[in-house]
Description:
Keywords: Signal. One of its GO terms (biological process) is transmembrane transport. The protein is α+β, with helices and mostly antiparallel strands and 354 residues long. The protein folds into two domains: 228 residues, D-Maltodextrin-Binding Protein, domain 2 (3-Layer(aba) Sandwich); 106 residues, 3-Layer(aba) Sandwich (D-Maltodextrin-Binding Protein, domain 2). Helix content is 45%, strand content 17%. The chain contains 13 helices and 14 strands. The strands form four sheets. Strands 1, 2, 3, 4, 5, 13 and 14 form a seven-stranded mixed sheet that branches. Strands 10-7-11 form a three-stranded antiparallel sheet. The protein has a two-stranded antiparallel sheet with strand order 6-12. α1 packs across α4, α3 packs across α9 and α6 crosses α12.
Amino acid sequence: MIRTILAGAAFAAALLAAGGAARAQGAADQCTHRGALDDAYCDEDRDLVADPPRDPARLRDPSTLVFAYTPVEDPALYANQWRPFTEFLSQCTGRRVVYFQVTSNSAQVEAMRSGRLHIAGFSTGPTAFAVNLAGAVPFAVKGNPEGYESYRVAVLVRADSPFRTLADLKGRRVAHTSATSNSGNLAPRAFFPQQGLVPDQDYRVIYSGGHDRSVMGVNAGDYDAAPVASDVFNRMVQRGQVQRGNFRVIWESAPFPTSSFALAHDLRPELAQRIRQCFFDFRFPPQMARDLGGNDRFWPATYLKDWEPVRQVADAVNAPYTRANFDAEARREEEAAARRAQQRRQQQQQQQQQ
């Protein structure tokens, strides 16, 4: 599966190389402002996201809509959880809806950029890469009747550990999730020094590859601590993957928005508006609401307003959402995936020898 997803990301990059230059040149000829967006996109209205193409011939009206949610260790888990929504979206739009399983943030972003992904739920940090590099237009977040969901950066340690403050983690094994993650890397780099702990100076950063992997690693004793998104941790507790009593939270941040739901910028406006309305009309069935932290609906959101705290964190640690930083993260994800595959092979060999 990992090799398949990585191959998909490579295929997307090849598509970009073949057709991206011409598309970017066409946008450059007509665009007077694009801000932080890639050359393939334009932002004339200065709302920080890509405008729809001016040329009607470049607007897409696909008969099959492809939807993906944020990558996790077991992609099939989210495919099952989101089935009630994808079935509703199919009925609501009158089109076939396919769930696309992804195991890396880079593969998800590249899939939207290449045109193979139309609707996606991006994690908080990768949302900005998707906006700048893939033409994603965030429009919604999960929530409940009171408002949309937020999360905090929560630093987890084992409950039986001696660690009580961030300063206690100097010289310890601290897992960050991935370089592009807001809660799992960028926010800790921005906030920890104020608490007496400097990543890469007071401890060597270990990238786990995901929030769920960080949580499981702390639980197993592989890591002494890990900053993770509190909503992911809470869902893992609710699903019975870990027990809350096995952990202690030694620090939390102020709230951030959770994963965004975004459309490709070049969908036909009537279709884009229909999809938005379908999102807002949908109510999560009881099991889906339980699986997704008690959320039961989508709330409107914009990248300009609701992702401002995330952009501020990136600015504070000098980690702009550029193609160069994205490519570096993609390489790290590939290397991490290769290491996990090697570990699985070694475990299988050991089991066969027993």
